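for the recovery benchmark. tokens below, seq after
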């Protein structure tokens, strides 16, 4: 009888186009916190205690982020005035959250795109020699042990990949598409094979020592990194508890100033079939990384583009559309073209903003994302705006994608850009909550 039931189940699985591992629930719900939000002012400030409503949803919290000392290659606090024991003691405060959330695993993030050293040299030179790797490894294990972190997450700041150019069918102009955090890069690494092998050795050796301390090691693949150049997925997977794929920022106003487009689609389209979550996941799984170790990132930030007068005749609001550089900066990050979800939500609820909201996912779960726009007004000469953002609907669908494809879970990047204080509609952490609801 048991065998008969198994056969029936297998038949149904084949009929539905799923595999046995796709029926299990992902067990990882990773949350990042950018500690820079602690030093913001006003509504943008996020204290440790502000995180509590979200932490009941998270299985892991990654404190983003520590950096590397370029002189001795040891891990170092990037904000010693607030993080260390001789100052505000933020490291202790964040780890003490385990008293309220005993099952929560708290990791120290290293790199994360926030280390201000922009030349990438120390991240490359560190992995070249065993002596510098060992210095770093020894300091990391001591750091994690001293502050009682449960593990370490490496978000290695490799040089950005050189931007690709693709033709925009609407404007016939050449625009750059690249895996980029926000900026572009044309760095040519003459020792890329050496750096690839050195990083694999670093991960292997670091994991060996961390495991002796009963601590975990994970990898965060930043959006701008050339994965084929710097990562050996099959080798790395043997030493990692999870691989967090930050498969977003596919289009940004810095890389793509002349064209507004979906920043984080699940699936690609037309000439941009590789600029999507599915392509990144497929690459890592094809390289023999276990599905259950792959975790997909869900962003809580949005990108904005300015729509000018000269673009008006081309624009219907449907991306990709002609644009005129990044939109105005928001109050949270003060970065042109970058908004938190809370800022987007409040603008959408403001009738005077005249924004037209479009949720592609309402009609097609395999669609490309949520966006809002307002075209240039020739009467008032007011610039238009196009906003590509993560809505609760798109977050739900990405969680479902992870679940239906047998992945390890999702990672929220990051809590501080969600609606932390519930300023939009009274709901705190709506993007985080929506993803968790569908993942369960």
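predicted aa per position
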């Amino acid at each position: 009888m048991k065998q008969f039931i198994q056969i029936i189940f297998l038949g149904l699985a084949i009929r539905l186009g799923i595999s046995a591992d796709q029926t299990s629930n992902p067990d990882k719900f990773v949350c990042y916190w950018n500690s820079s939000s602690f030093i913001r002012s006003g509504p943008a400030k996020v204290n440790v205690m502000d995180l509590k409503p979200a932490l009941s949803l998270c299985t892991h919290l990654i404190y983003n982020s520590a950096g590397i000392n370029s002189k001795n290659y040891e891990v170092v606090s990037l904000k010693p005035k607030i993080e260390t024991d001789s100052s505000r003691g933020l490291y202790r405060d964040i780890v003490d959250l385990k008293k309220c959330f005993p099952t929560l695993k708290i990791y120290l993030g290293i790199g994360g795109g926030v280390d201000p050293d922009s030349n990438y040299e120390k991240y490359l030179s560190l992995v070249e020699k065993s002596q510098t790797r060992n210095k770093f490894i020894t300091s990391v294990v001591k750091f994690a042990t001293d502050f009682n972190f449960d593990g370490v997450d490496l978000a290695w700041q490799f040089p950005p990949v050189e931007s690709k150019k693709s033709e925009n069918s609407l404007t016939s102009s050449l625009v750059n598409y690249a895996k980029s955090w926000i900026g572009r890069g044309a760095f040519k690494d003459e020792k890329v094979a050496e750096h690839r092998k050195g990083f694999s050795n670093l991960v292997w050796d670091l994991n060996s020592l961390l495991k002796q301390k009963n601590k975990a090691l994970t990898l965060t693949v930043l959006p701008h990194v050339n994965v084929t150049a710097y990562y050996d997925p099959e080798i790395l997977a043997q030493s990692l508890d999870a691989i967090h794929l930050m498969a977003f920022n596919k289009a940004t106003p810095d890389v793509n100033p002349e064209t507004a487009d979906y920043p984080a689609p699940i699936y690609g389209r037309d000439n941009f079939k590789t600029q999507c979550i599915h392509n990144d996941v497929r690459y890592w799984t094809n390289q023999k990384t276990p599905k259950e170790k792959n975790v997909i990132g869900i962003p809580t930030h949005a990108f904005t583009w300015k729509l000018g007068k000269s673009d008006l005749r081309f624009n219907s609001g449907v991306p990709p559309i002609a644009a005129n550089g990044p939109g105005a900066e928001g109050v949270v990050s003060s970065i042109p073209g970058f908004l938190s979800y809370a800022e987007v939500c409040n603008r959408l609820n403001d009738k005077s903003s005249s924004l037209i909201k479009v949720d592609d996912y309402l009609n097609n779960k395999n669609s490309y994302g949520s966006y809002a726009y307002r075209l240039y007004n020739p009467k008032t000469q007011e610039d238009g705006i196009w906003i590509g953002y993560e809505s609760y609907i798109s977050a739900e669908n990405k969680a479902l994608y992870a679940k239906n494809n047998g992945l390890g879970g999702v990672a929220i990047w990051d809590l501080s850009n969600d609606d932390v204080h519930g300023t939009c509609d009274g709901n705190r952490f709506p993007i985080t909550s929506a993803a968790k609801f569908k993942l369960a």
